[in-house]
């Protein structure tokens, strides 16, 4: 049983982390899984599973990786190619056109039902028709939420029986015991935490505006964990609003959970998501959560609002009110038992078993197990 898990790079995003997790767990189950990257760059380059079972195609970049991927496929002839991230899926789909023997599965981690201007650039230019053609013969498509699975069926015109929901797992290691000592002074006041890449999709610009307009800066600090191209603009925004001493952007941290454990609350201001695992991480730390009810993931993660506050997308006033309540300590926390029961479905062992079951079924040319394929909405 040989599987090539294909990524553009080893960037520190959620899809890349899941690809590492899947590679590790497939190998632990006796499946010869290799992590194949177009170019070995990024924050996760030192991951042990890549160091021991990784393949660097040394392509100039992800969109020019087709020749190198084709050579690898023809030489190694893996029984299954499992492609993660937009560009890798497209390149894998092109590679399959000349290789009828290749069994291709794709993994979808980001919302598809987004405005054209917010899409990955080939989708912004050409829509979804090219991918519908490229993916017409995939043996399976994986989505990280039920809502996203429904989008995959619509956008890629795939048969529902070929689309499978497997949630992202919570980290399979205990939470780090403490925050970085350099960040200790931030917690001299109540802290509202946000975590994610500093990109337009996460809309930290609106978050900062809401934090200020709602007067939360008088009560609390806003801590935004993550890196990205919008860092200079967000810092300039905080200075322009006169709250540079209340808004902190310390960059990437390896574990957000110790920060959530000490926070007054966690807020997600994203315009869209694929899953938003940070919500589950916040719940696991007994941290109050408020999130825009955006596609896809927050509603499922918060059990339709039973475990945290769902706010209409773009409602800055509603987000500000949620932060005020967090800073004041008046948020009613859900019962710990209900949270624990909900989080069991994100247990790494549970998720690993689902991936192993799916991949084994694809390698055996059998229909995937109904235990593996979660119900679609």
Q: Work out the helicity level.
A: 25-40%
Order of helices and strands: EHEHEHEHEHHEHEEHEHEHEHEHEHHH
CATH topology (level 3) name of the largest domain = Rossmann fold
Which of globular, elongated, flat, extended, rod-shaped describes the shape? globular
Just give the CATH class of the largest domain: Alpha Beta
Number of domains: 2
Tell me the quaternary state: single chain
Largest sheet: 7 strands, parallel
Summarize model confidence as the mean pLDDT. 93
Cα distance spanning the termini: 32 Å
How much strand?
A: 15-25%
CATH superfamily of the largest domain: Glycogen Phosphorylase B
Low-pLDDT runs: 366-377
Q: Specify the number of helices.
A: 15
CATH architecture of the largest domain: 3-Layer(aba) Sandwich
Radius of gyration: 21 Å
* Main sheet strand line-up: 3-2-1-4-5-6-7
Structural class: alpha/beta
Description:
- With 377 residues, this protein is α/β, with parallel strands linked by helices.
- It folds into two domains: 2-169 and 347-363, Glycogen Phosphorylase B (Rossmann fold, 3-Layer(aba) Sandwich); 181-342, 3-Layer(aba) Sandwich (Rossmann fold).
- The protein is 37% helix and 15% strand.
- It is built from 15 helices and 13 strands.
- The chain has helices at 14-28, 48-53, 66-76, 86-96, 121-126, 129-134, 146-156, 204-213, 231-240, 257-262, 277-284, 298-301, 316-328, 336-343, 348-363; strands at residues 2-7, 32-37, 54-56, 80-84, 104-108, 140-143, 163-165, 191-195, 221-225, 247-251, 265-268, 289-292, 309-311.
- The strands form two sheets. Strands 3-2-1-4-5-6-7 form a seven-stranded parallel sheet, with helices on both faces. A six-stranded parallel sheet has the order 10-9-8-11-12-13, sandwiched between helices.
- Helix 7 (146-156) links the parallel strand 6 (140-143) and strand 7 (163-165).
- Helix 1 (14-28) crosses helix 15.
- The chain is globular and about 65 Å long.
- The chain starts with a strand and ends in a 14-residue tail after the last helix.
